[in-house]
Amino acid sequence: MKRSILLGVLLGAGTLSMAAQQGPAGPKVVDILKLKDNLYVLTSSTPGNAATFSGGNVAVFITDGGVTLVDDKLAGWGQAVLDKVKSVTNKPITTIVNTHTHGDHTGNNGFFGASVEIVAQENTKTNMQKMDAFKGEGAKFLPGKTYKDKMSLGGGKDRIDLYYFGRGHTGGDTFVVFPALRILHTGDMFAWKDGPLCDRGNGGSCVDFPRTLQNAIAAVKNVDTVIPGHSPMQTPKDLQEYQRFTADMLSHATDAMKAGRSVDDAFASFKIDKYPGYKNERVKAAMQAVYDELKK
Ligand SMILES: [Zn+2]
């Protein structure tokens, strides 16, 4: 009890500025989608509408020993997450996997408390240490368990496999596989059907992005459903298409740069209609990231 009051004070500043960004405060409600009897997804993850955008898709995996969350949304949405978890199980949340450092995936580590085991790839822990939310008193909500290339949690039907396949959205993105359920959570390595966001300040790379996705596709077999970072459920075919899209975009930008053409020019001549259902709202920024990276 005491801790949660203290936490409220600690997170107060961040929560206030978040509320200011999000406009008038309404009831925070996240949607829930059932994929399996023991796996749900907390959605409301599409950026754009500040009133309904709660952060990335959260996987809720109900095991014999308790509930594991993959990501935990934006600060201020912890109660809404907890309410939805309680609507499907009375087991306690025991583990949180942070797929990467960003606040829309790590925002409620503090809300769920230091008794929950928090797990992330080691570079993500390093990135999180630079965030205000995890400085000082907040440091106890950093991942207590990290890994480098691969790690499994639990066993049997409750096993979760965590993989790091290289740089992309950040320099520490985890792919989370639920082998018994044939489900993969990609975090923001497949956020949406649009240009990838490559956070170079946190080790991300739009140049390495397609190769990292290829590594994931080659290593992770036996999956039927893909939970993306910020859009509706996808299939492995969609992930393969996204890999081709990122590779295509990279080679297009690289060729244009070598030919001395501008980013605007590279963007204008990139044919998005080869990819049905894709948007090009973030393609130019991704191409700019390629230019910036190759220029060095
Ligand atoms: Zn992100």
What does this protein look like?
There is one protein chain. This protein is α/β, with parallel strands linked by helices and 296 residues long. Helix content is 33%, strand content 19%. The protein has nine helices and twelve strands. The strands form two sheets. A seven-stranded mixed sheet has the order 1-2-3-4-5-6-7. It has a five-stranded mixed sheet with strand order 8-9-10-11-12, covered by helices on one side. Helix 7 crosses helix 9. It is globular and about 60 Å long. It starts with a helix and ends with a helix. The N terminus is likely disordered. The structure holds zinc ion. Zinc ion binds next to loops.
Short structural summary:
By secondary structure, this protein is an alpha/beta fold. 33% of the residues lie in helices and 19% in strands. Residues 1-24 have low confidence and may be disordered.
Radius of gyration: 19 Å
Q: How would you name the oligomeric state of the polypeptide chains in this document?
A: single chain
Alpha-carbon distance between the termini? 51 Å
Q: Helical region count?
A: 9
Strand order of the largest sheet: 1-2-3-4-5-6-7
Distinct compounds present: zinc ion
Shape: globular
Structural class computed from helices and strand pairing: alpha/beta
Unreliable residue stretches:
1-24
Order of helices and strands: HEEEEHEHHEHEEEEEHEHHH
- Amount of beta strand: 15-25%
For the largest beta-sheet, the strand count, sense and barrel status come to: 7 strands, mixed
